[in-house]
DNA sequence: TCCTACGATGGACGGATTCCAAGTCAAGAA
DNA sequence: TTCTTGACTTGGAATCCGTCCATCGTAGGA
């Protein structure tokens, strides 16, 4: 994730302790934290960091394409640092665990022209739902 | 949608003016209203109807499988009366308009076994995003 | 027509997110 | 190194979405 900080600086980001901590917290695979969870972990490293800053930073990272927003339920949004490799999500209906998955083929290709209603279609997000081994 | 009311009565539903109005408001194709929008339209026909009743009724319709809940963004849930024909959604990134679409093939089939992590996968929801003709 | 259990009401509540005015500080200039 | 300034952070208020609850009303069977 240190590449990220370098990349952000290259884009004119002011490198603050708060932003560094948020970026560190989001490091890893299959990470899908809510803003509150990011804040809770950030506070461990930087006790004064405010929730507003966490929201601001997450929003900026999303705007820059460095982090994906995931809305798998009607509740809190989750943030996924795995934004550079295309992937979809598999969600457990029991416990809510999320895994990154890579389906075969391109879901975009499955939408025929006559089903596009003149839209310029850019992306396809797939959410698979099922029961995970722990909940079964 | 009159079938719906008949069906619901068959399931032991008490048929109140409020429930009838909510069902009427949800009639049509490509309808994806938020609970608040449903309430606003219901009030036109039945001024005393409360938000709580709209939420209750929508929740019941979802539980009965007569209406689908759609979460295309991290904001308000939307309610889709087209629950009996399987379909996916195409969302305009500009104005938020939603169309029901039917991709070719079954998205579930695209998830290979080794990408299922032991989950019993049951459903796949696809959200296509792009720019609609009006916003282009 | 009467009863009563189910449904409706609206106001309080709670979680998630955004907004805002005031204070702070990273980083380039001197 | 110090200065300067505009970008960043802060915390609390505000907003939006949804749920809960005690009370009142009524659909539909007896």
Task: Please provide a written account of the structure.
The structure is a homodimer of 136-residue chains. Chain A has 136 residues and is an alpha+beta fold. Chain A has two domains: 3-80, Winged helix-like DNA-binding domain superfamily/Winged helix DNA-binding domain (Arc Repressor Mutant, subunit A, Orthogonal Bundle); 88-130, 2-Layer Sandwich (Dna Ligase, domain 1). Helices cover 31% and strands 21% of the residues of chain A. The first copy, chain A, contains four helices and six strands. The first copy, chain A, has helices at 2-10, 17-25, 35-45, 51-63, and strands at 33-34, 68-70, 78-80, 88-92, 98-101, 120-131. In chain A, β2 and β3 (78-80) form a beta hairpin. In chain A, α2 crosses α3 and α3 (35-45) packs across α4 (51-63). The first copy, chain A, is globular. The relative contact order of chain A is 0.14. Chain A binds a DNA duplex (30 and 30 nucleotides) through residues 14-16, 18-19, 34-36, 48-53, 55-56, 74-77.
């Amino acid at each position: 994730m240190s590449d990220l900080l370098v990349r952000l600086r290259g884009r004119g980001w002011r490198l603050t302790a708060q932003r560094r901590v948020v970026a560190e917290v989001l490091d890893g695979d299959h990470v899908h934290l809510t803003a509150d969870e990011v804040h809770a972990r950030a506070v461990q490293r930087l006790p004064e960091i405010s929730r507003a800053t966490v929201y601001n930073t997450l929003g900026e990272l999303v705007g820059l394409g460095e982090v994906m927003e995931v809305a798998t339920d009607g509740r809190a949004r989750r943030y996924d640092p795995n934004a550079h490799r295309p992937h979809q999500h598999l969600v457990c209906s029991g416990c809510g665990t999320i895994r990154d998955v890579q389906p075969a083929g391109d879901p975009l290709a499955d939408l025929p022209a006559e089903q596009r209603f003149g839209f310029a279609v850019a992306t396809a997000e797939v959410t698979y739902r099922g029961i995970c081994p722990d909940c079964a």
